[in-house]
Amino acid sequence: MTEKKFISLAMMGNVDSGKSTIAGNLLRQLKKVDNKTILRYEKISYEMGKSSFKYAWVFDQSKAERERGITINWTTRDFETDRFHFALMDTPGHHCFVKNAIRAISQADVAILVVDPTTQRFPRRYTDQEYNEEYIKISKSFGIEKMVVLVNKIDEKSFKYSESIFLKTKKEIRRILKEYGYNPKRVPFIPVSGWKGENLIEKTEQLGWWKGPTFLEALNNLKAPSRKTIIPLRFTIRKPERISGIGTVVVGKVETGQVRVGQKLYSPILEQQFVVNSIEKFHQKVQVGECGALVGLNLRNVPWRGLRKVFVLGDLYDDIPRKIIQFTAKITVLNTNPKRVKVGYNPIIHISTAHHLCRLEKIVAKIEKSTNEVLEQNPSFLKKNDSAIVIFKPLRPICAECFHQHPALGRILIQEHNIIVCAGIITDVQKMDFLLKN
Ligand SMILES: Nc1nc2c(ncn2[C@@H]2O[C@H](COP(=O)(O)OP(=O)(O)O)[C@@H](O)[C@H]2O)c(=O)[nH]1
Ligand SMILES: [Mg+2]
């Protein structure tokens, strides 16, 4: 039997749209969470006056998350269909924790956008549509080509399983998708109720008009993502964990190449090498972590403290990753920034699961986005919709790569006050010399 292809999914969308509830209820229906656990959540959440969050608690595991009724962390669970092995990442929608959402989305193959078309319950700084737009921008900037849109809460009083509300929502979201370069025809839209578990795995009688797939069917119908297996290894770390009896485990994604037991890995930030003791993929020991997989690596001789700052590992003998002290990027300004994007601008730049403080050293040229034709040399600032070639200098050396070599480490995103200011790709990097301490 050939092994099933692996796909990672990130739930994304505004706070309270029902991401955690959908994810939790889906796992319950797939019997990945037993009813006893749900009954326990039901009882305790009821006592806390948060009974509507019983399914969300499958993913919202911490005390702070449960008391506040919001997702803060980014939690991953797995499940299988007959074609694929999925990793399902639940992300926070609350604007205070959007950094965690960005990091999770950066490791996803497919984004699951959850939208709530029912009436808004409290005043917000931005409209729901603006939040949806931000998430679509984030996933596009990270090169996520596939998306599934779930129109949630069909059971709510103001929705009442209405086809017209579904179609209206679909039309609005499709317009945004198109604006940011997605082909709306390739994005399935599915009406669901995360709370009642309707149309997640099984169809519901209430939705007689719905002839399309359920959420799970849509996932099973996805095309397997293409993987860059033959390129040397880059492993992006989400978090280090200390597991009793095993030792230090780094959890992350095999972005390119593959990782093997016994392989010597190198961290440019620590300037150290480690040997892979064992690899775990959703609680199962494996010999190889294939390209695209989310795995835990148990490493020999890792300094626990230093690991927090490490985001990328590569093979010690094959295209070893190096520290970067400066990089050139082709960026597009997606939003006007009150301070404007000019030389000296000091943004935090997201690259894969990491973010770094950088300084804009130089605006080389303003260009025409599609043709790269130079419109202006050395402009003093950039405004909304401008594209440009720029040079950034990180405050401290970082790990990054040219987009055409390692796409996952060559995409950058600048976000300020929860608004995406710029997005782009790295076209050139200035590397530091290779150093090895141990
Ligand atoms: N009526 C109804 N309420 C829902 C549905 N899905 C989620 N909710 C409620 O919406 C609130 C927020 O849900 P949660 O899953 O925490 O949203 P998240 O912030 O996107 O993760 C909770 O009170 C849920 O019970 C649904 O399909 N129907
Ligand atoms: Mg949540």
From TrEMBL:
Gene3D superfamilies: P-loop containing nucleotide triphosphate hydrolases, Translation factors. Keywords: GTP-binding, Nucleotide-binding. Residues 4-227 form the Tr-type G domain. It holds the Pfam family GTP-eEF1A_C. Signal peptide: none annotated. Belongs to the TRAFAC class translation factor GTPase superfamily. Classic translation factor GTPase family. EF-Tu/EF-1A subfamily. This is Translation factor. The lineage of its organism: Eukaryota, Metamonada, Anaeramoebidae, Anaeramoeba.
